[in-house]
What does this fold into?
Amino acid sequence: MPRLILPSPHSREQNTLLHPPTKINVCTAGSKFGKTTGIGAWQAKVAWENPNTISRWVAPIYRQAKIGMRVINRMYPSSLCQMHRADMELHLANGSIIQFASADRPETLEGEGVQFFVVDEAAKMSEEAWQAHLSTISATDGIGWVVSTPKGRNWFHALAQLGIDPSEPDFSFFRFQTSHNPHVRPEVIARARRILPVRVFEQMFLGLFRDETGGVFEGVDACAVLLGAADPIAGMIYQLGADIAKVNDYTVLTVMDSNGNVVAWERFNGLLWGEQVHRIEKLALHYQATIQLDATGIGDPIFDALRERGLRVVPHKFTNQNKRQLIENLKAGMSEGDVRYPRIAILMNELKAFEHSLTKTGEIRYSAPLGSHDDAVISLALAWYGVRGYSPTAEEITIEPQRLYRQRGGGDARRTQHGTS
It folds into this structure.
């Protein structure tokens, strides 16, 4: 007879996830501890052992919920489980259903009673989402896990305090560290300890709550000291950081002077690449700026077009390593107060939300939270790289407002003082 294919726990700590002792079990976990596999095994197990029940997995956004669905689906033989992708449900042969839901619209979490639940990456959800979920277990007296890597002292932190309180018998609390996973090499954790700010390392690898959000950048508000855009100044050198839109993202253009001041900022999407080229060209000519361009993917044809127009362009093809260096340069500039910008809400929100994560190979990776944007962060980082990492002289970056053209019949391109296109 077909049976569940549950992974063997890698440690005593991960095995704890298979045996929740109370109704609401709260757990902080370091990155790559293995919480998704552990709580996935528990949910697969209880759904199968309790026929005709409803289980639910809640994640901050649908893409994360789909990860949980894939993990649990792999634990069932195909004869025991049918995946209903459109409904985000697994239907089991014993009549049980496992639902997978997003917390981005809390009102959608209200509904039928749930017997077993997982709230994954809880610290990234709103308290309203948690309250909406509670309504589904009030009548069933449901049992489950609320798990996350900590992110400041929010409602998830308050819930953990209930788990610590011995006078609250329906709550329990556990803390698991990255080092509890024997598959994560100690040197990876040691390297992260050297690289990351203490508060970030303690949240991300030790599962500890800390007062700040654990974001990458310090001093986001302190750097917002400028009143607004500024016209070009004769003799000043400018850099234009251009992060190009990919699918649902935005193109963001940041112009920074050689003193680290953001003097112009634009954000747009939905434009054809030719229109984007025109916007970038116009801004670069206005400030006589060198363009630091994200040329990864869709940036290639834009790079070619800008060079053909005689503009000075420095292309950046991102890998995890050089993107990490770019972000760490910006971190240093902001922490020292050398980067300054107006109070641009979108930029500041992206900077505050920007995160660290750990790749499967143990490398630190910087990115926006899943489902969010980092276009403004990358644009700012590119501009700052131009100011500190690549600083041509004023003579080198003078741009003549003359356009290159190719003669009909394939003649050579005309030259500007920057050379050939």
User: Anything to note?
Assistant: The radius of gyration is 26 Å. The first strand starts at residue 24 and ends at 29. The first helix runs from residue 12 to 16.
